[in-house]
Amino acid sequence: MMRELADNIMDIAQNSISAGASLTEVHVTVSHEEDRITFVFRDNGCGMSEEMVRSVMEPFTTSRKTRKVGLGLPLLRQTAEMTGGSISVESTVGVGTVVTAAFGLTHIDRPPMGDVAGAFFSLVMMNPDTDFLFTFDYDGKDFTFDTRIIRETVAPLPLNQMEIASWIKDCLSTEINELHGGNFS
Ligand SMILES: Nc1ncnc2c1ncn2[C@@H]1O[C@H](COP(=O)(O)OP(=O)(O)OP(=O)(O)O)[C@@H](O)[C@H]1O
Ligand SMILES: [Mg+2]
Fold first, then answer.
1. Which ligand 1 atom lies nearest to the CA of residue 71?
2. Is the shortest distance between the CB of 30 and ligand 1 below 6 Å?
3. Count of CB atoms situated within 10 Å of the CB of 122
4. Does any ligand 1 atom lie closer than 6 A to the CB of residue 21?
5. Angle at CA 98, nearest 5°, toward 54 and 127?
6. Residue of 3, 15, 18, 91 with the most ligand 1 atoms within 8 Å of its CB, for mutation
7. Which of 17, 52, 153, 156 is buried most deeply by CB count within 10 Å?
8. What's the confidence (pLDDT) of residue 69?
C-alpha cells in the first residue's frame, strides 16, 4: 500500500499521546511560493533526553515492549529527505517535544497528501479525553480546530458521542476542502 503524508500525521501525533501529552498540536502548511509542505507536531508530553533525541531517528530505538523497531520517526525522515526536505526533533524532559518535517511540494517523489481531515478526525476519536489543536494553512488561507473549545461547548458530552463526532468529521473535511477548493493532492 502506498503511504501518504497524512499517514505520518497519525503516527507522529500518536507518539505524543503515548508520551502522555494532554495537548497535541499538529500544524500543516502548504506553500506554493516556498514549494514546501511543512508539518509541525508540538506536545506537552514527557519529552526525551538529549541522548534519546539523538538516537530516535535510527530505526532501532523504541520504548515499545512488543517489538524492537520504532519506525514512525525514521519513516518520516526518509519521506522528508527523499523529497528534498528535512526533519528536526527538539525535546525537553518534562516539558514536551516539537517535531518538524518539511517536504518538497512539487518534488517528483512526494507522496500524495492523503486524507488530512480523516487523520485529524481519527486522532480525536481514538483519544477523546486529550486535547488537540490542528491548523491547516494553504497559501496563507488558514483553518484552526481546537478540541478545547468544542469540549467546553458540548460538555458534559464526550467528543466521540455520535452526533458530535459526525459534526466534527463534517467540519474538518468541509473547512479543509474549502481552503484549497478540493483540488489539492
Ligand atoms: N513526542 C514524543 N514524546 C516523547 N517521546 C517520543 C515522542 N516521539 C517519539 N518518542 C520516543 O521515540 C521512540 C521512537 O518513536 P517512533 O515513532 O520512531 O517509534 P515507536 O513509536 O516506538 O514505534 P512505531 O511508531 O513504529 O509504532 C518512541 O518509542 C518514544 O520513546
Ligand atoms: Mg511511533
1. 26
2. no
3. 17
4. no
5. 115
6. 15
7. 17
8. 64
Q: What is the pLDDT along the chain (185 residues), one digit of tens a residue?
A: 568 999 999 999 999 999 999 999 999 999 999 999 999 999 999 999 999 998 888 766 667 665 556 788 999 999 999 999 999 999 999 999 999 999 999 999 999 999 999 999 999 999 999 999 999 999 999 999 999 999 999 999 999 999 999 999 999 999 999 999 888 89
Domain annotation for the chain: domains and CATH numbers: 5-178 (3.30.565.10)
Per the structure block, which three cell numbers stand in for 48?
526525551
Please give the distance of CA 13 from its chain centroid, rounded to a whole number. Answer: 5
Residue showing cell 458540548: 154
Q: Which residue has the least CA distance to atom 24 on ligand 1?
A: 70
- CB count within 10 Å of CB 47 equals 19
- Protein residue closest via CA to atom 19 of ligand 1: 70
Cis? peptide before 128, omega within 30° of 0? no
Q: Which backbone phi and psi does 46 adopt, to 5 degrees?
A: -65, -20
